[in-house]
Amino acid sequence: MRKGTRLRLVLRDLGSGFAFASMAVSGQLPVWSLALYGLALVLALMGKRPFAHRVKLTALLLLAVAVTLGTNVLAGSLNLVVAACAFAGLISAQRVLSTPDAATDGQVHLSGLLMVAGGAALSGELIYGLFLILFGVMASIALALGVVEAAVPEGEPVPVRSVMGPLARGVTFAVLGAVAFFIFFPRLNWNMIGPTASPGLGVATAGFSNSVRLGGSGTIKDNPRIVLRATLSPDPERDSLNAYWVGRTYDVFDGQEWSNARQASGPFEFMTTLRPGRDNLVHQRMELMPAYGARTLVALETPSRLGNAFINTQRGSRRTHISEQGGGEVRFRDTGISYTYEAYSLPPGSTGDEVRDLPPEEQDALLAIPDGLDVRVAQTAARVLNGEREPLAAAQKLSAWLQREYKYTLELGGDVADPVADFLFQRKEGHCEHFATALTLMLRTQGMRARLATGFFGGERVTGGYVIRAGDAHAWTHVFVPGQGFVTVDATPPSHRASQSSRVLEQLVSLYEAVESQWRNAVLEYNFRDQMDAVRTVFPRQRHKAKGDEAPSRTPPPRAWGAALLAAVAAYALWRTLSRYLARERPLEATRFADAVESMLASARVARADGETLEALDARLGKEGHPLASALAPVTRRYLEARFGGRPLRQGEAQQLLSTLRNAVAMEAQRLAREGTRPPRARAS
Question: Can you state the angle between helices 160-184 and 126-151, rounded to 10 degrees?
Answer without folding.
Answer: 140
